[in-house]
Specification:
alpha/beta, TIM Barrel, binds phosphoenolpyruvate
Length: about 250
C-alpha cells in the first residue's frame, strides 16, 4: 500500500471541502485505487467537518500535529490526540520541521507519538536534515538520532509511518538526487529494523513533490509514498501526482 498524504498547513476554510470532493471523485473511479491511501491533513478547524463528510469514503483525514498530553490539560490552545480522534481524524503528523523549529523537543515528540498511538491514530513521524547538516555529511547521523530518541520497540509499528522530509527541500522546489534519496531511505529502513525487530514501517518522502518530479521519484520503489505540501492544495496537481505515479 502506498500513501499520498496532503499537508495543507495554514490553508483552508469550510468551502475548501470542494478540493477534497474533486480528489475523491477521481479516487472513486481510479482503477489503481486499491493500491494507495489518500490522507489529507487540514488545519484543526476543519477536521471535524471534513472527517464527518468523508467518514464512509476512501479519503482519510488527519491532523498536522497534536499536543504532548493525552486528554485534557490546562495548556491554552493545546489540542490532544484524544480530542483529535474524537472528531474523526485517523492520522496525525508528528515532528514536522515547522513544529520542531517552534520548539518541539525529542522528549515532547516521544510523548506525542505515545499518546497518539494510544488513541489509535496512525502517526506520520517526520524527520529530516537541514541544509548545513547535509553539507557537513551528517544526514545519516541526524536522522538516526531523530529516530532512536523518539521511537521505541514497544510502539505499534503497524500504526507508524515515517516521512523523510529534508528541510532544505520543503517548499523550495529542490529535491534530493535519485542516488542520495535511495541511500537515505535504505538507511532509514535499516535503523527502523534495528528498533522494530527486523521489520520497518512504511517510509515516505516529502519535500517539493509535484506532478513532474514524481516521474523520477516513482523509480524508487523503496519509497512507500509521499507527503505533499504545496501541491496538495490544488486538486489537479494532487491528482496528477497520483496519475503520473501509476502511469
Ligand atoms: C511539507 O511541508 O510537509 C511539504 C512536504 O511541503 P512542500 O511539498 O510544499 O515542500
Amino acid at each position: 500500500m502506498k500513501y499520498f498524504i496532503g499537508n495543507w498547513k495554514m490553508f483552508g476554510v469550510p468551502k475548501s471541502i470542494n478540493i477534497l470532493k474533486s480528489i475523491n471523485s477521481f479516487n472513486l473511479f481510479d482503477k489503481n485505487r486499491n493500491k494507495y491511501q489518500i490522507v489529507i491533513t487540514p488545519p484543526y478547524t476543519l477536521i471535524h467537518f471534513f472527517a464527518k463528510y468523508f467518514k464512509k469514503k476512501l479519503i482519510k483525514i488527519g491532523s498536522q500535529n497534536c499536543f504532548y498530553k493525552e486528554k485534557y490539560s490546562s495548556n491554552t490552545s493545546a489540542i490532544s490526540p484524544y480530542m483529535i480522534k474524537k472528531v474523526g481524524a485517523k492520522f496525525t503528523l508528528v515532528g514536522h520541521s515547522d513544529n520542531r523549529a517552534e520548539g518541539d523537543t525529542d522528549k515532547m515528540l516521544k510523548e506525542k507519538v505515545k499518546h497518539a498511538l494510544k488513541h489509535n491514530l496512525k502517526v506520520v513521524f517526520c524527520i529530516g536534515e537541514n541544509k548545513k547538516q547535509k553539507k557537513n555529511n551528517s544526514t545519516n547521523r541526524v536522522l538516526k538520532n531523530q529516530l532512536i530518541k523518539v521511537l521505541e520497540k514497544k510502539f505499534n509499528k503497524n500504526n507508524i509511518i515515517i516521512a523523510y522530509e529534508p528541510i532544505w527541500s520543503i517548499g523550495t522546489g529542490k529535491i534530493p538526487n535519485e542516488q542520495d534519496l535511495s541511500n537515505t531511505v535504505f538507511f532509514i529502513k535499516k535503523i527502523l529494523k534495528q528498533i522494530f525487530n527486523n521489520k520497518s514501517p512504511a517510509v515516505l518522502y516529502g519535500g517539493s513533490v509535484d506532478e513532474n518530479n514524481i516521474q523520477m521519484l516513482k523509480q524508487l520503489r523503496e519509497i512507500d509514498g509521499f507527503l505533499i505540501g504545496g501541491a496538495s492544495k490544488s486538486p489537479k496537481k494532487f491528482i496528477d501526482i497520483i496519475k503520473n505515479y501509476y502511469k
